Amino acid sequence: MNDSLAEQFPVLTALCESGESGATATFGHEALLYGSIYSGCSPDSHGVLGYDALRPDGLNVAPMARYQVTKPFIWDLLDNQGVACAVVNMMATYGSHASHSHIFSDVMVKNKAVEAADISVLPGSIYPAHNRQQLLKNQWHPSLIADEEIAALADRSDALSQSVTSTLKEALCQVANTQNIIIDALHSNEIAAIFACFDPLRTLFSNPEFTVEASIIIKIMAFIDGCIGAILSVCPDISVCITGGGDHPFVVLRLPESQPDQLLSSEFSLYDVAPSLLALFGYTSAELTGKPIYSPDTPLIDISGQWQTAEDARIKMIKGLMPDTAVPPSIEKLPLMQQENILAVTNEHNYHLAQHCLYAGRHAEARHIIDRAELTPEQRRLLAEQME
After folding, report:
1. All residues at 6 or more sequence positions from 345 whose CB lies less than 8 Å from its CB, including other chains
2. SS3 of 231, please?
3. Taking the CA atoms of the chain, what radius of gyration do you get in angstroms?
4. Rounded average pLDDT over 170-179
5. What is the pTM of this model?
6. C-alpha to C-alpha distance for 301 and 258, rounded to whole angstroms
7. What are phi and psi of 290, to 5 degrees?
8. Both ends of the chain: CA-CA distance in Å?
9. Torsion sign (Cα): 234, 239, 245, 247
10. Rounded Cα distance, 316 and 47, in Å
11. Which of 28, 132, 185, 341 is the least buried, fewest Cβ under 10 Å from its Cβ?
12. Which pLDDT does position 246 carry in this prediction?
C-alpha cells in the first residue's frame, strides 16, 4: 500500500503493519476461492464451484446454499467444539446447523425493502431471537440516504447517473448493516470469533460506469476502513483475517503471534487460512488441505472426523426443508427453462473446476474435464487457450 493510500485507510494500514500480509496464488473463480478460504480444502473437495448450484430436489438451480457444501467451514468446526462465532454476510450462510454460533444471512444484511419502514429480519435469516430488536435499531436502507449525501461522498454533484447512485447506496448500507450487526454481537454475546464479509466492491466494479471512478472506490474503501475501526474499538484484541479475491488474491492475517512487517511466505495458500484460525483455538484436522501458519505452545487437538455430527444435522435440515422430495425426474422431462438452467450451472461448474486444475498445474485432470464434461464452445476455447 503506497503512502497516499495509507493515509486514507489508517485501520487497514495498521493491520498490515501489525500482522502478516501478502499476495497469494489464485486458482480460479471467486466462489472456489472463498470456499477454500472458509473450508481449508481444495475446490474439488469442498464442492463450492459457483454462486449457483443444483437444488437438492434436482428440479432447478438456486443460489449456492450451505447445505450444498460437502466440507465444513471454519465456523462449523469451531461451533462443533462449542466455540461461539458470529458469521455475518458470508457466502453460504443459509441452512447453517450452528447451535452455539450466530449466523446472520445475506438476506438480512442486504435487505432490499422498498421503504425504510419495510426493514425487518426476514424468515430466511438465522439470528439469536433475543438480539432481534437490537439489530432492528441499527438499520440502514438506501431510502434513508439522500442523493445529495452520495454526491458529496463522490465530490461530483449531479454527475452520477441514477443507477450508479442506487448502487452506491446499497453498497454503503450493506457495509453499515454488517458493522452494526458485528458490534451488537460483540456487545451482547460471548463471541470468540467473527467471520464477516465487507463486499460491496464486486457490485461496484461490475458496473461499467465505475471503471474510471477511482475516487469513488477509494471513498467507499475509506468507509469500510472506518467500519472495521469501529469494530476493533469494541474488541481491539480480536484476530483479523481480511481477504481480497479476483486474479490477485491478497490476505491480511493478524494472529496473536504475528510479527510486524512480516510477509507471508511464498508457499502460503488460501487453504492455510482456515487451519491457521483453527489452530488459534487449539485444534487441527488432518482432513484439511492447508496447514496452519500459527503454532501455539501446547499441542493441537485433532478433531478429524468430528464433522459427522454436523453432517447429520445438515442432512436432517435438508429433509426438513423438503420432507416430500421425491426422486427427481430425468432432465428431459423438465420444462425447457429448467433444463437450460441446470445445463448452464453444470457447464459453469465444470468450467470453473477445469480452470482451477489449470491454475494448479494439474493439466491432465483439466484435459479429462474438457474431454468428458459438458461445456459450451466458448468455455472450451478459453480453457484451450489457458492450456497453451
Report:
1. 50, 52, 53, 54, 61
2. helix
3. 21
4. 77
5. 0.80
6. 22
7. -80, 170
8. 34
9. positive
10. 19
11. 132
12. 60
Q: Label residue 273 exposed, middle or buried (CB < 10 Å: 0-12, 13-18, 19+).
A: buried
Ramachandran sector of residue 82 (left: φ over 0; alpha: ψ -120 to 50; beta: rest): left
C-alpha cell at 327: 426422486
Q: Write the DSSP assignment of 166-217 as a string of letters.
A: HHHHHHHHHHHHHHHHHHHHHHHS---EEEE----HHHHHHSGGGTT-HHHH
- CB-based contact 1:21 (threshold 8 Å): no
Grid coordinates belonging to 142? 438506501
CA distance 254 to 237: 10
pLDDT average, residue stretch 133-141: 61
Contact 37, 71 (CB under 8 A): no
What percent of the chain has pLDDT above 90?
A: 10
Fold of 3-26+72-314: Alkaline Phosphatase, subunit A (3.40.720)
Q: What is the mean pLDDT of the chain?
A: 75
Residue 123 has what pLDDT? 47
| Percent of the chain whose predicted confidence (pLDDT) is above 70 | 64
Mean pLDDT of 8-29: 75
3-class SS of residue 49: coil
Q: Are 102 and 196 in contact (CB under 8 A)?
A: no
10 Å CB burial of residue 376 (0-12, 13-18, 19+) is middle
Picking from 49, 51, 21, 46, the residue whose alpha carbon sits closest to that of residue 36 is 46
Using one digit for the tens of pLDDT, what is the confidence trace for 280-323? 889 999 889 888 877 777 889 999 877 665 566 666 666 666 66
Q: Cell 474435464 appears where?
A: 369
Residue 65, Cβ neighbours under 10 Å: how many?
21
* Among 327, 381, 330, CA closest to 354: 381
Q: SS3 sequence, 22-44?
A: EECCCCCCHHHHHHHHHHCCCHH
Show the CA angle centred on residue 113, arms to residues 117 and 53, nearest 5°. 155
| Per-residue pLDDT reduced to its tens digit, 143-173 | 777 777 777 766 655 556 677 677 777 777 7
pLDDT at 263 over 60: no
Average pLDDT, stretch 358-372? 90
pLDDT of 363 reads: 92
